[in-house]
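Q: Given only this backbone (92 positions), what sequence would you predict?
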C-alpha cells in the first residue's frame, strides 16, 4: 500500500509540476524532489540534511529556494496523503 501511494504521488507531481509552479527555477527544484522520491530505495543516508545537500548538488540552488518549493510540495503531499487514506487513491 505504501508503494502504491508513492507511485501515485510521483505520477501526480510529474503531471502537475508545470501547473503548480510558474517559475522555471521552481520547476527545476520540484522535478529534482520528485526524482529523489523515485530513487528513495537507492539513497543510503535518508535524512533532511542529506536530502537538502543532494538537492543543492542537483539544482545548484540555495537552501532558501529549496525550502520554499518543498513547503509547497508538502502542502500538496498532505492533501494527497489524506485522500489516499480516505479513498485508497490520491484522486477523489
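A: Predicted residues:
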Amino acid at each position: 500500500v505504501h508503494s502504491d501511494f508513492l507511485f501515485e504521488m510521483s505520477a501526480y507531481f510529474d503531471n502537475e509540476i508545470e501547473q503548480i509552479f510558474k517559475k522555471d527555477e521552481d520547476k527545476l527544484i520540484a522535478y529534482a524532489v520528485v526524482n529523489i522520491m523515485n530513487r528513495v530505495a537507492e539513497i543510503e543516508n535518508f535524512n533532511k540534511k542529506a536530502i537538502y545537500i543532494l538537492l543543492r548538488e542537483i539544482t545548484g540552488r540555495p537552501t532558501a529556494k529549496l525550502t520554499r518549493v518543498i513547503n509547497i510540495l508538502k502542502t500538496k503531499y498532505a492533501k494527497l496523503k489524506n485522500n489516499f487514506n480516505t479513498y485508497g487513491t490520491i484522486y477523489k
